[in-house]
């Protein structure tokens, strides 16, 4: 059990995530209060504003993963961590647990805000937990793979952003709009780079999308295991 929570026990592990979420919540409350006092927006518009602000969560997760998963390499403590009493495989498993835990912390925030502005839904809560877990597992696994190669948090973050966020979505969306081939469109729609944030912002993944994301994460983890175990640390 100790190895599962090893990464989470590091000083300041949840601090950055909690601070970011608190700032987002503060921004959310100030924005909503301003709409009520000055713009006299109806409830539907206020609820829409809350949903729009919650779309920032993937960026918070991106930054958190990029920083936490490259900490040892950037601080030059990777030799101590990966050659200590725990095996390299155990360390990677602890990191897997840590980014899933990060996703669940963000999920709790999302659920609380959703309840405040939209009411409670058991089905919606279950969908949120599954969506956040799948998202952070897949994105975290690939982030861990990239960090094992680059050993740099900034470069890792930029690569993950380029492949999964606005730039990639714009390029893939343009490719879908410009092609007449149904095969190409279906292929793009099933790319993990396209599914990751489109499914997340939709609030749930279909069974097929969930399968693709989980497979994507598993493959990234397997490659990471190989790289870390062969790396001369």
From TrEMBL:
Is the keyword Transmembrane helix assigned to this protein? yes
Transmembrane stretches, start-end: 12-32, 44-69, 96-120, 132-151, 158-177, 210-228
UniProt name for this protein: ABC transporter permease
Q: Which regions form coiled coils?
A: none
Per the UniProt record, the source organism is: Clostridium tetanomorphum
The source's superkingdom equals Bacteria
Q: Keywords in UniProt for this one?
A: Membrane, Transmembrane, Transmembrane helix
